[in-house]
Automatic annotation (TrEMBL):
<keyword id="KW-0805">Transcription regulation</keyword>
<dbReference type="InterPro" id="IPR001867">
    <property type="entry name" value="OmpR/PhoB-type_DNA-bd"/>
</dbReference>
<dbReference type="GO" id="GO:0000156">
    <property type="term" value="F:phosphorelay response regulator activity"/>
</dbReference>
<dbReference type="Pfam" id="PF00072">
    <property type="entry name" value="Response_reg"/>
</dbReference>
<keyword id="KW-0597">Phosphoprotein</keyword>
<feature type="modified residue" description="4-aspartylphosphate">
    <location>
        <position position="51"/>
    </location>
</feature>
<dbReference type="InterPro" id="IPR011006">
    <property type="entry name" value="CheY-like_superfamily"/>
</dbReference>
<feature type="DNA-binding region" description="OmpR/PhoB-type">
    <location>
        <begin position="129"/>
        <end position="227"/>
    </location>
</feature>
<keyword id="KW-0238">DNA-binding</keyword>
<feature type="domain" description="Response regulatory">
    <location>
        <begin position="2"/>
        <end position="115"/>
    </location>
</feature>
<dbReference type="GO" id="GO:0005829">
    <property type="term" value="C:cytosol"/>
</dbReference>
<keyword id="KW-0963">Cytoplasm</keyword>
<dbReference type="InterPro" id="IPR058124">
    <property type="entry name" value="CpxR-like_REC"/>
</dbReference>
<keyword id="KW-0804">Transcription</keyword>
<dbReference type="InterPro" id="IPR001789">
    <property type="entry name" value="Sig_transdc_resp-reg_receiver"/>
</dbReference>
<dbReference type="GO" id="GO:0032993">
    <property type="term" value="C:protein-DNA complex"/>
</dbReference>
<protein>
    <submittedName>
        <fullName>Chemotaxis protein CheY</fullName>
    </submittedName>
</protein>
Length: 229
């Protein structure tokens, strides 16, 4: 698996490159935001590790412009305690975040959770094509695409996984904890708003094509996909 790390901390890049390479990943490092964006658009990476504070162009702008071209999975590297950075990154389409300083094994777990999804995609064949439609939302599990009234939604991998999970369990309340463990591959930490932000992004994209609410928040419980109009 080929990863791109965009971070101006050369020491951290060197350490992580060595650590992740030992785990079977190929890691390329760029230390400038604008140059990192060019690399991310020009080449195909399975995952991008993106720092927030970067020279020439910050991580938010890199992510914003990247999402106009590609849906490559992105893990944001944020400053510890900076809730705004995490929320804003998720709003812009980051798949996950991890605050600095972090444990290398925790980062590896996040990376593997995303790359497992990619391996699953690559293992699918056309003979396995199947889809499910609920309340004008169609999910194609083979192509990993979702659409609303024949309008394809531009979803990140994480957003797709969450919507697919809700469609498969339409009418059932799915807790944030369940979503986090199945989709992000980690337990939901206290005050972690990542699932809320991903669901908010999905709602906005669905709302571009239908007026009625499709995903309902069950206060204190989780989310449910409404089965009928």
């Amino acid at each position: 698996m080929k990863l791109l790390m965009i971070d101006d901390d050369t020491g951290l890049c060197e350490l992580l490159s060595e650590y992740l390479s030992a785990q079977g990943f190929t890691v390329e490092c760029v230390h400038d935001g604008a140059e990192g964006l060019k690399q991310a658009i020009k080449h195909n990476y399975e995952l991008i590790l993106l720092d927030v504070m970067l020279p020439s162009m910050d991580g938010f702008e890199v992510l914003k412009q990247l999402r106009q071209h590609k849906l490559t999975p992105v893990i944001m590297l944020t400053a510890k305690g900076e809730d705004f950075d995490r929320i804003f990154g998720l709003e812009l389409g980051a798949d996950d975040y991890i605050p600095k300083p972090f444990n290398h094994r925790e980062l590896l777990a996040r990376v593997k959770a995303i790359t497992r999804r990619i391996e699953h995609i690559n293992s699918l064949s056309s003979q396995q094509a199947s889809s499910l439609s609920v309340n004008s939302i169609n999910v194609n599990f083979a192509t990993r695409e979702a659409s609303v009234k024949d309008n394809v939604l531009s979803l990140t991998g994480t957003e797709y996984e969450i919507l697919a999970m809700l469609v498969q369990h339409a009418g059932e309340v799915i807790s944030k904890e369940q979503i986090s463990e199945q989709v992000l591959g980690r337990r939901l930490a206290p005050f972690d708003r990542s699932i809320d932000m991903h669901v908010s992004n999905i709602r906005k994209k669905i709302a571009e094509h239908v007026s009625n609410e499709r995903i309902k928040t069950m206060r204190g419980s989780g989310y449910v996909l409404i089965q009928g109009e």
